Amino acid sequence: MRVGLAGVGRIGAGHAATLRGLPEVAEVVLADADPARAREVARALGVRAAGSVDALFAADLDALVIATPTAAHAALVVRAVEAGLPVFVEKPLASDLDGTIQTVAAVARSGVPVQVGFQRRFDPGHLAARDAVRSGRLGWVHTVRSCTLDPVPPPDEYIPTSGGLFRDCSVHDFDGIRFVTGREVVEVTATGANRGAAVFAESGDIDTGSAVLTLDDGTLAVVSNARYNAAGYDVRLEVLGSRDGVVAGLDDRTPLHPADGALHPPGGAFRPAGPPHTGFLERFADAYAAELRAFVEVAAGRAPSPCPPEESLEAFYVAEACEVSRRERRAVAIEEVRR
């Protein structure tokens, strides 16, 4: 299988390395808006670089991975499916709601499989939490708590084009909650704050956000996100039920310390055994590799997409409702933003 990859920034270069190591992938071809960067990454990995995206599409591909900046996602997805190429695309599918809806429709018309990169669906902790819910071991679920806490914010130039905290960051929590519980969100109440760099407020964004989601069975989900969590990168999901509770992402690198100096193990002050994860690429390294292995199966026609565009759209609706709620300071039903 010959797989093309558009975009060789941080996550794109990582995807290229993963693809190169998959036995089903005979060749990886890279392209980037900066051809020199594509050549540099290709040389380091021992793969081929195309001189442009047009050249990439002319390279007799069997599948395409899209890891470009968000603004290019929708056009590349549509171009690929119209050419009959199965696609893996990093979230989001498009930069806004209307673009997402139009892209979902284009994919549906094509009949070509597309997988959106919500890597938490492949994280062992989230999968185990999902199994615990589906098995009934937790009883009925009453509360879900999900957090994504970044140690430092993205570069200033990224913020104005990010779509905002709820669409850029929280959307992973929204998809994770839907995936683990198997329920849909029906209403949200969201708020945010700015206490960090001025670029957030200047861009109409926030650096800290919280949302309460009401699910269709009455379960409440609380989502917390921040750009300035100095303790370290922290992604967790707790599912609490009438019989038991579980948490994904709590391990010996979780950046949490008891405020009361509790001892664990006996005789020693509690501290994580290792340093906190530096960011999403490290925290979800195994999940990123697993989702690309799954995509190869999708591209080969051996499996359906584990995260089709329609799933991405549902998470985007939740993010959109949260943004409306934050701006208008009120509860917002998902049906208000649904097209």
From TrEMBL:
Keyword Membrane tagged: no
PANTHER family hit by this protein: BINDING ROSSMANN FOLD OXIDOREDUCTASE, PUTATIVE (AFU_ORTHOLOGUE AFUA_2G10240)-RELATED, NAD(P)-BINDING ROSSMANN-FOLD SUPERFAMILY PROTEIN-RELATED
Key words, A-Z: Oxidoreductase
Native species: Actinomadura fibrosa
Domain Gfo/Idh/MocA-like oxidoreductase N-terminal, residue spans: 1-118
Similarity comment: family membership: Belongs to the Gfo/Idh/MocA family.
Domain GFO/IDH/MocA-like oxidoreductase span(s) in chain numbering: 127-243
Name assigned to this protein: Gfo/Idh/MocA family oxidoreductase
